[in-house]
């Protein structure tokens, strides 16, 4: 092996170690770096949500490709930060991010699938990256579950809105714009059903049923998360039970003595 190849490998190893420290480390500098990454993520998600209103502006494609470059750099850096690339590829969030990147790189070809970009919101709130940074103080409380459930609900609203808009905006006179699709989705999701906008045909009725059932399910899930008694996460060394009462001394499943850390 030549000296140039050895030097190249060393540079790659140092780069991977540096990225690993930034993406997975606990130092103040690593936390600040991840906070910036998360802030950029939220700006990108805001762009995805506002995209239907911005497509007519000349600068839209420039912003689209800029977001694509930033997302591609982030995905590449995350991949390099993992010790095992196969483990990284097995994560559902990875495939969601790659799909979002594809819609950004080919906005004209994948125009009808652009509404799925908002899945980035779901993948962000369901990632260890987020909860090890923003949620590191709340990881042992119900706030993590509440945020995940709420993110799922918001993601579904915008995915369903985008699907209705992409499928019926040019065919159904009741849906003349994105706001009409959002209005229909919210009224159907909440089972309000004013009836001023209805989707035509069998497929329209089936889609309405799916949105309605999904909405009920997601709202019930959110209510359960808010009302359910508070539990802390602590792995029982004997049976593996993860959820316990905050003041639990013994595991309710096997009776093992627990040592749950607390601030009292």
TrEMBL record:
Record's subcellular location: Membrane
Chain ranges passing through the membrane: 33-53, 98-119, 146-166, 203-223
Domain Potassium channel: 154-228
Record keyword GTP-binding present: no
Any one GO MF annotation of this record: voltage-gated potassium channel activity
Record's bilayer topology term: Multi-pass membrane protein
Protein name: Ion transporter
Naturally occurring in which organism (per UniProt): Phenylobacterium kunshanense
